[in-house]
Specification:
Elements lengths: L4 E8 L2 E11 L4 H12 L6 E6 L5 E4 L16 E7 L20 H6 L4 H11 L28 E4 L4 E10 L7 E7 L9 E2 L2 E2 L8 E4 L4 E3 L13
Parallel strand pairs: 1-5
Antiparallel strand pairs: 1-2, 3-4, 3-5, 6-7, 6-12, 7-8, 8-11, 9-10
């Protein structure tokens, strides 16, 4: 039986980002869908609760049956899957105010002898000419050894994270840090640009489908887009 795919938008309860128009196979189970989303959003599958919303923001279904197929819930293109993160150890990474902070008054801090501030003051007294060393400059040939075998047109994935796409540029980027870069046209809108770096175009793609990464994070191979690999659920 021929499989059917659907384009869905993905939101997350503890992240402000939205993944737009991600293509899924409706024959995959909810368990495999959770594993797929775990790679993209970092929430472990066992801590996910999934809700399906229609284009009007109305709840269509609670996707609670891990053995059910995605198509069971009758999703349409551009419906939204909302990930609710139930892991008590995670916090909202977009709102650091939720992170508990250890605070101490300046007066109490100054009275302590085991602080970095006291150490710094002592070092300045002992070595008044001490200058903070500069960071070593990045070499112009940085990661040159990793570009062998990476060619424009290669299918690839980015590690970690398993984002997939096609290589569109290999080389240096004067607008960025020295060394070598790989420009990738992603299959899904999980990138940061459209192939431009500071108004210089290196390749053309849709908004948020472009990304530039260091060569050592690129793995070249026969990586098909999600939903098109017969070995994937």
């Amino acid at each position: 039986m021929q499989s059917t795919t659907v384009k869905l938008n993905i939101t997350h309860s503890k992240r402000s980002m939205t993944a737009m128009e991600i293509r899924f196979d409706t024959s995959q189970t909810i368990a495999s869908l959770k594993n797929n989303l775990s790679v993209r959003f970092g929430t472990a599958a066992e801590y996910m609760m999934l809700k399906l919303f229609n284009e009007n923001g109305e709840v269509v279904a609670n996707m609670s049956d891990n053995d059910a197929q995605l198509g069971t819930y009758n999703p349409h293109d551009f419906y939204v899957i909302h990930i609710i993160d139930l892991d008590p150890s995670t916090v909202n990474i977009d709102n650091l105010e939720e992170v508990p902070k250890y605070q101490i008054s300046d007066e109490a801090y100054n009275q302590r002898d085991d602080t970095f501030r006291k150490f710094k003051e002592q070092q300045q007294k002992l070595h008044p000419d001490l200058v903070k060393p500069n960071k070593a400059p990045v070499d112009e040939e940085f990661q040159r050894e990793f570009i062998d075998g990476i060619q424009v047109g290669n299918r690839c994935k980015i590690n970690p994270g398993d984002k997939r796409g096609t290589v569109r540029y290999v080389g240096k980027i004067p607008e960025a840090q020295p060394g070598y870069w790989v420009g990738i046209e992603l299959d899904e809108p999980l990138g940061k640009n459209d192939g431009c770096v500071k108004e210089t175009r290196y390749f053309q793609t849709e908004k948020n489908h472009g990304i530039f990464v260091r060569p050592n994070s690129v793995e070249v191979g026969n990586f098909r887009p999600y939903g098109e690999d017969p070995d994937e659920l």
